[in-house]
Amino acid sequence: MHSRQFQNVFLTKILSDIDRRHEKHGYDPLLPLHQLERAKYMKLTSLRLTLFEFVSIVENACFMATTCLQLFAICFLDYGLFWLLETMSFHGHQETGLEVPAYVDLEIKGGGFVADVMRGIANAFRPLTQKSILDVNPCIPLPVKPDYAEYLIILLLCLLAWLILLAEPYILRTRHLIMAYFYPKRAKERGMFLYNMISEDRTSIFKFVRRRKRNEFNHTRNVKHTRKFTWLNNRFSSLIYMCSCCSCCQSTERCTICGRSLTLSNRNPCDTPGCKGVYCGKCFEKSHNKCCLCNRPVDYGDFSDVTEVDDSSDYSEKESFSERQYRKTCGGQR
């Protein structure tokens, strides 16, 4: 209600109505989205997560993992203590009673105060029982069997918490539907804001990806990699090659800019020898049927990326300003 940008990346029915209304007035249709835009914008029923939802799930998952680990440790210690006492009780009941060791009895005869004191001291060292075998079973601990139903309840609660955690982003998406039902005016404002944002980003996203692909191509062509990176690259290339050999299906050729799968009907390769650029029909048309890897930005219509300069080695072949003035004045070259 207070921010038009908050989680405003979902395609709703209001956005579809706005797009149809603009299309009737001669504007280009916004839907369906292009290949590059589908990674950022999605439907409310999409299983993919936005960056905000992914970060929220990671934070809640860390908290839940800590809580579940703590509960597991408590249950494990509880059962471990029961198992230890149960083992002691089992082996204790298997043994026979303890025999009373032999002892020397001291008998005091006579009367008097000294005799009574000596008799009391002698009685203190005399065993309390006269049995030859002692039963130690009453001294063995008898553990109480744990309630396994409580363990099951704790497990079900943890599973329910994890289920709520995973379903939380999808359930919170219903806020858009609730807002559209109770506050339709605000929902239309957010839909119009999303329409304008997608329209503005449509050109900028395409240019950004095209420039990034061009920079990657120039970087890998002109920059010499270090030994460590080359070693890692060789290892990963070998691993990818092994995985591709083990795979049942072969990888299809994809567009250099948008990554869309190409077929023979919409495949547009670059005519320059040695260039690896291959494009789909839409990307090739937006680039004025020019390859963005081997041509200048001006050639394929990117006038905002004219940052290239001529090589300094070409300056010797060009005529300087002073030479041109001398030629015009004196009619020759020096």
Automatic annotation (TrEMBL):
Residues 315-326 have a biased composition (Basic and acidic residues). InterPro entries: CSR-E3_Ligase_Protein, DC_STAMP-like, DCST1_C. Pfam families: DC_STAMP, zf-RING_DCST1_C. Residues 310-334 are annotated as: Disordered. It comes from the Eukaryota. Residues 6-195 form the Dendritic cell-specific transmembrane protein-like domain. Its main location: membrane. It is a multi-pass membrane protein. One of its GO terms (cellular component) is membrane. The keyword Transferase does not apply. Keywords: Membrane, Transmembrane, Transmembrane helix. This is DC-STAMP domain-containing protein 2 isoform X4. It comes from Drosophila mauritiana (Fruit fly).
